[in-house]
Specification:
Blueprint: H1 3-8, H2 12-23, H3 27-36, E1 44-49, H4 56-69, E2 74-80, E3 106-112, H5 124-134, E4 138-142, E5 159-164, H6 169-175, E6 185-188, H7 196-207, E7 219-221, H8 230-247, H9 249-276, H10 284-292, H11 298-310
Parallel strand pairs: 1-4, 1-5, 2-3, 2-4, 5-6, 6-7
Length: 311
């Protein structure tokens, strides 16, 4: 069987091979997605984000085990910082999830950001589609961390779980700048530490200023290492899914995410055409030199490039 048939027949090695193709931007990955696109859209995608050290991997591990107890299959995409030397994921060992590797109902893949802004790998959306085609019921995307550019997760996930820990006052302040809006469910992990109640109060106060009216994100205390509160957190995720389905927001979110993905894909393809096509009458490096020497302004340079493409 070819890779496409092996993928639809549940061959885990075929899925791993496809993800490698996607990360390397191989045209074969796009071809397979085109052929099997009608099979996508069935998995429920959960984003897990939060500051470094919040325990995202441990919490994802525990949530996955709860879902497996319910008979659900799970895919996990752990998006990690990229090594400047090898281009691979720095945290690729996923030692906090090592006991899940032997579970045939769970597929785990670490993917490096490879410099992509927003905290998500360029291949993440392809990976989600592949795991969806493969038949996973739930797909977790664990991001690098939180920052002003770490908001791409909301453009991919159905439910975003924001993981916080007590005592991160500076991080709470940073969230005020707008990243608070991406969380659908808040989990205060390591809540057996001092300051958990204070963190919850701060989050509640900030949610009072949120523009979200129909759904107020719940804030739940958990201790992932001991499994405390994990079942209740999963129930919060299910409640958010029910809200999306009942209110019609699920279709709106999927529409918005698909539109954003399409626009970004077109942007990337146009940029590739500009940078790779050496047969055109202009040269990007020449334009840069002309801009720096003030022979031309940068806006006119951009219009010149676009004019050549449209022409």
């Amino acid at each position: 069987m070819d890779l496409q048939d092996r993928l639809t027949s549940g061959d885990s090695r075929a899925l791993a091979r496809f993800l490698t193709l996607a990360e390397n931007n191989d045209p074969e990955a796009a071809r397979i997605i085109k052929e099997l696109y009608s099979r996508t859209g069935n998995a429920y995608v959960i984003g897990v984000t939060g500051p470094p050290g919040a325990g995202k991997s441990t919490l994802t591990d525990k949530l996955t085990k709860k879902l497996r107890q319910k008979g659900k299959t799970v895919g996990i995409i752990a998006v990690d910082p990229t090594s400047p030397f090898t281009g691979g994921a720095l945290l690729g060992d996923r030692i906090r999830m090592q006991d899940l590797f032997t579970d045939p109902g769970v597929f785990i893949r670490s993917m490096g950001t490879r410099g992509h802004l927003g905290g998500l790998s360029r291949a993440t959306q392809s990976a989600v589609k592949a795991m969806d085609i493969f038949g996973k019921d739930f797909i977790f995307i664990e991001t690098v961390g939180v920052g002003q550019s770490e908001v791409d997760i909301v453009k991919t996930a159905d439910t975003v779980v924001m993981v916080m820990v007590p005592g991160l006052g500076d991080d709470i302040q940073a969230i005020k700048a707008g990243i608070m809006e991406i969380g659908d469910v808040f989990a205060i992990n390591k809540s057996d530490r001092d300051g958990a109640d204070k963190t919850k109060i701060e989050l509640e106060m900030m949610l009072d200023f949120s523009e979200k009216k129909d759904w107020r994100p719940p804030i739940h205390n958990v201790v992932a290492t001991t499994d405390a509160g994990v079942e209740e957190l999963l129930e919060c995720i299910f409640k958010h899914r029910d809200y999306l389905m009942d209110s019609g927001e699920f279709k709106k979110r999927r529409y918005r995410n698909t539109r954003e993905e399409l626009i970004n894909l077109v942007k990337e393809r146009v940029l590739e055409l500009i940078l790779k096509d050496t047969g055109r009458e202009y040269n990007i490096d020449d334009l840069v030199s002309r801009v720096l020497s003030k022979q031309i302004d940068i806006y006119s340079a951009a219009e010149e490039v676009l004019g050549k493409i449209s022409g």
